[in-house]
UniProtKB/TrEMBL annotation:
GO terms for biological process: carbohydrate metabolic process. Signal peptide: none annotated. PANTHER family: 6-PHOSPHOGLUCONOLACTONASE. This is 6-phosphogluconolactonase. It comes from Thermus scotoductus. SUPFAM superfamilies: NagB/RpiA/CoA transferase-like (SSF100950). Pfam families: Glucosamine_iso. InterPro entries: 6PGL (IPR039104), Glc/Gal-6P_isomerase (IPR006148), NagB/RpiA_transferase-like (IPR037171). It comes from the Bacteria. Residues 29-195 form the Glucosamine/galactosamine-6-phosphate isomerase domain.
């Protein structure tokens, strides 16, 4: 995993946006992270033209339309570009949604790219350190014990995410410093299960 350290969050986001724009030119499918960090990137996509089908890395299993879902937050940032999203089917029982998502994913693999966040504990998507979902042979998994609320989530698995031709992990802010340090030190944290030769970690944390 290559690591690029920038002097400020703004410069790191600028570099991440350049990475994303370059992938959107050609990719037919790509993964967008949930969480707060990447939202300015999604807002910057408004007004652009691209054909990529976008999938969220994971979803917080809340009622459809709940503002706390990744879909609500990402769609709000993307604006009209949210039409590119293939969302997790909120409102269904998790196991049914898992099956539906796997069918949808089949047609999108191999993924063109994956833009993923990093949590303070080193998780990515809803793949948490030591969690059985990391070993799943399926393309999507139900997570019922997420340490990051809400506890119930659906997530793409390393099996799905590792098909991405290029992966970018975005970790900004002092709260992510320890996770970045552990990743750079080579610890077997969830991003390591996804990172191939073309993986890049963009951060503002000197480690
Ligand atoms: C979520 C995300 C999660 C996120 C990281 C980083 O549901 O929150 O899928 O994996 O990307 O926790 O979140 P922040 O960018 O908000 O720090």
């Amino acid at each position: 995993m290559r690591v690029a350290v920038y002097r400020s969050p703004a410069q790191a986001l600028e570099a991440a946006l350049a990475w994303l724009l370059e992938r959107l030119v050609h990719a037919s499918s790509g993964v967008l992270a949930g969480g707060r960090t990447p939202l300015p990137l999604y807002r910057a996509l408004r007004g652009l033209r691209f054909r990529t089908t976008l999938v969220l890395s994971d979803e917080r299993w809340l009622p459809p339309g709940d503002p706390g879902t990744n879909l609500a937050q990402v769609a709000e940032a993307l604006g009209p570009q949210a039409d590119h999203l293939l969302p997790f089917p909120l409102g269904l029982p998790p196991e049914e949604a898992q099956k539906r998502m796997e069918v949808g994913l089949e047609g999108l693999l191999p993924l063109g790219f994956a833009l993923l966040g990093v949590g303070e504990d080193g998780h990515t998507a809803s793949l948490f350190p030591g969690h059985p979902a990391l070993e799943s042979p399926r393309l999507a998994e139900v997570v019922r014990d997420s340490p990051k609320p809400p506890p119930l989530r659906l997530t793409l698995t390393p099996k799905a995410l590792a098909t991405a031709e290029e992966v970018l992990f975005l970790a900004l802010g002092g709260a992510k410093r320890e996770a970045v340090r552990r990743l750079v030190a080579g610890e077997d944290l969830p991003p390591r299960r996804i990172a191939g030769a073309n993986a890049l970690l963009i951060t503002d944390q000197e480690v």
